[in-house]
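Good morning,

Attaching, inline, the backbone tokens for the sequence recovery test we're adding to the shared suite. The designed sequence is right after.
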């Protein structure tokens, strides 16, 4: 692709910071940079027409961890590490709402629920016994008492079958991630950030005074510093990073008259998740059916997962309600052996802010700010 003199000068001349990835992390990094140092020339580049990973392809859960997830994390990590991560998720959600506003995000705090089947009775009993402990920890983070509580009385209200117990998270919410990314993009553009879609960075190179980037389109980019914010795709640019791509498949139904489901729901230890979008049901997950196949940077759908999602809709979630699937899609998350994020300087002028472990909505705003702060230290 050839650029005119004018294009090369106006867009790519004297660039201060190159951010790779236009998802929630990249855009929040740009927002933090321009808010704190408006004179900086900041460019965000994205290889796809829209964010390629998961920022606008996820389920839109404003959540910070279900009881069973927190107990499992506590079995492998220290109390300080587990609740430190919960605090970062909670703070990230508050920052996201502060930056954009609940109306723009279409945010609703309708609560979240964890479902337990008959064979999960021991797990439910353990979670129920630990609720006072978990609530005490959560109160110190959220300022709210009794975040988690038993909610078996709502099983019939929602119309579930094969569900023996429910635990409710009163502080959980949901939002529209398409509106979120659109609003973030427009906000940073108003501040003067250049956001270029359809421009793929293939490699980053250190230079004496900054970095140079090679792109698939043949457009060379030079900047004083770069931030990699591509999450599940991070190893393509920084192979040494401990980040593994993980595909998440999702479907959404056509509108269902008199839908009783309202809120966000975690099922089978969080490997499945569903929510209402108005009077539709969004349902995703099933990565545990074939971890090897779903550990991929390729977007796509598989009959194994999609058929299982429809089966669970028919037998557990909407057992007495006719439904039709209207749309299906997938997104790519960034996972690792640990759930901690990787925000670090990888060379003199290159940093990264990646590995959100499926909690991008919750923690992405904070991780973007942290990545931006790291960049500012290098200038």
């Amino acid at each position: 692709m050839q650029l005119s003199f004018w294009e090369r000068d106006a867009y790519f001349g004297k660039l201060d910071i190159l951010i790779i990835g236009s998802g929630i992390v990249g855009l929040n990094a740009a927002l933090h940079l321009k808010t704190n140092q408006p004179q900086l020339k900041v460019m965000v580049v994205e290889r796809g027409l829209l964010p390629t990973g998961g920022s606008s392809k996820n389920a839109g859960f404003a959540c910070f961890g279900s009881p069973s997830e927190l107990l499992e994390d506590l079995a492998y990590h220290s109390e300080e590490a587990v609740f430190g991560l919960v605090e970062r998720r909670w703070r990230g959600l508050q920052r996201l709402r502060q930056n954009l506003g609940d109306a723009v995000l279409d945010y609703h705090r309708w609560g979240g629920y964890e479902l337990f089947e008959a064979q999960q009775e021991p797990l439910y009993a353990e979670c129920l016994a630990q609720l006072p402990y978990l609530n005490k920890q959560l109160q110190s983070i959220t300022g709210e008492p009794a975040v988690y509580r038993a909610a078996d009385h709502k099983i019939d209200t929602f119309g579930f079958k094969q569900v023996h117990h429910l635990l409710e998270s009163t502080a959980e919410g949901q939002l529209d991630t398409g509106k979120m990314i659109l609003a973030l993009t427009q906000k940073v553009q108003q501040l003067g950030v250049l956001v270029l879609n359809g421009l793929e960075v293939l490699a980053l190179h250190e230079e004496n005074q900054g970095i140079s980037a090679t792109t698939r389109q043949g457009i060379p980019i030079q900047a004083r510093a770069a931030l990699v914010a591509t999450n599940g795709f991070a190893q393509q640019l920084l192979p040494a990073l401990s980040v593994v791509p993980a595909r998440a498949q999702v479907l959404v139904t056509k509108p269902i008259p008199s839908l009783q489901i309202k809120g966000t729901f975690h099922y089978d230890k969080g490997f499945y998740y569903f929510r209402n979008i108005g009077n539709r049901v969004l349902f995703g997950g099933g990565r545990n059916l074939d971890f090897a196949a779903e550990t991929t940077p390729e977007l796509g759908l598989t009959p194994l997962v999609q058929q299982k999602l429809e089966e669970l809709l028919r037998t557990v979630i909407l057992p007495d309600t006719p439904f039709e699937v209207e749309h299906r899609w997938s997104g790519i998350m960034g996972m690792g052996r640990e759930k901690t994020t990787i925000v670090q300087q990888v060379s003199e002028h290159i940093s990264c802010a990646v590995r959100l472990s499926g909690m991008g909505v919750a923690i992405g705003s904070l991780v973007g700010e942290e990545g931006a702060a790291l960049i500012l230290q290098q200038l």
